[in-house]
Amino acid sequence: MDTAAIETWGRIEFGRLPGRRFDETAVTDNLLFTLQNQVPGLLTYQSNQVQERNSGADWEWWIGDDQAGWICLRIQAKRVYEDNTYRMLKHRGAGEDAFQYDTLIKGCNPDQARYAFHVFYNGWPEGTFEEGTYWAPPAQWNACPGLSSYKDCKHAEPRHYGCAIISTLDVKKLSDIAAPAAARFRVQRYLSAAVPWSYAFGFPPWDSKRGEERWHPRLDRGDWVDRVHGTLDVLTRRGGARGARDASGHLGEIPVDRDQRTFELPPYVEAMRRSTPGRFEPASEDEAPTAPQTVIIERKPKRARKRK
Q1: Residue 123 and residue 143: Cα distance in Å, rounded?
Q2: Residue 135 to residue 143: CA distance in whole angstroms
Q3: Mean pLDDT score, 2-19
């Protein structure tokens, strides 16, 4: 995912040239195609029936299996513009919703392991904000679990923020704060509460000496679904720079309630699981996907041990 983020950075940076343009849809299609080809067992479906306006989501991930339960992650993608803002955050919502992020939040519930997030597509030439780096001071560096500065971090680099993920609840808080039009949607305002999108699937270790203390006793450290669930819960409930930067430590404080997960998938997800990966055609209104793109990450069942 970090490699895909760096490639996205390059496309967005290239798109700043005259006569070049990569919008959110093109970047999303390319990202999901890349992941489909690189991640075994990942199923990506595209539907003709675009429900983005009604759900506020560009795509959604269903993560888990029938035994462990399923986590739903709905995502709205926004690209940075040449004025270094995410100006399309002001996009209107469905019905009486003021903004698109309001619609997205309304369709999710963290207490049911259904999370709303934004992914920002970033990219600009080196030195745009500070000479000799791609970073955009004074945005806070959240990617280092060792709490190092962006110049000293060994875990990530600025271009990993080619795909930066942030809780939509934080997007709403930041967007609703009164500010001059020129500053309201500035990159730095949102990057201070974001992390590379790969971190949504588990932060890297930040202190090997405290490794056993990073996880709540009810959380199986070797269980990937638990790890994703815990990380998403931290980023959603703690939010902001503190929640993002210290997420690996906070996982030790927040128990994961597996009963919150979905054990009866929506009809369209079940229909997708039965179909051939690729373009999905719903057979009824019940099978109409919530988002234009649906990604199913199903954990393979564990092999039964052979009896000696």
Answers
A1: 17
A2: 12
A3: 88
The 10s digit of each residue's pLDDT in 212-262 is: 444 455 555 568 888 888 888 888 887 665 665 555 555 666 668 899 999
> Across the chain, where does the E strand assignment appear?
42-47, 59-65, 69-79, 114-121, 163-167, 195-196, 278-280, 293-298
Closest to 241 in 3D by CA, of 154, 105, 147: 147
Residue of 13, 6, 45 whose CA lies nearest to 289: 45
Question: How many angstroms separate the CA atoms of 267 and 109, rounded?
Answer: 19
- Count of CB atoms within 10 A of residue 207's CB? 13
* Residue found by looking up tokens 């949102």 in the block: 190
Q: What pLDDT is stored for residue 217 in this prediction?
A: 55
Whether pTM > 0.70 for this model: the answer is: yes
Integer Cα distance of 171 and 185 in angstroms = 10
> What is the pairing mode between strands 114-121 and 163-167?
antiparallel
Give me 288's structure tokens. 């109409």
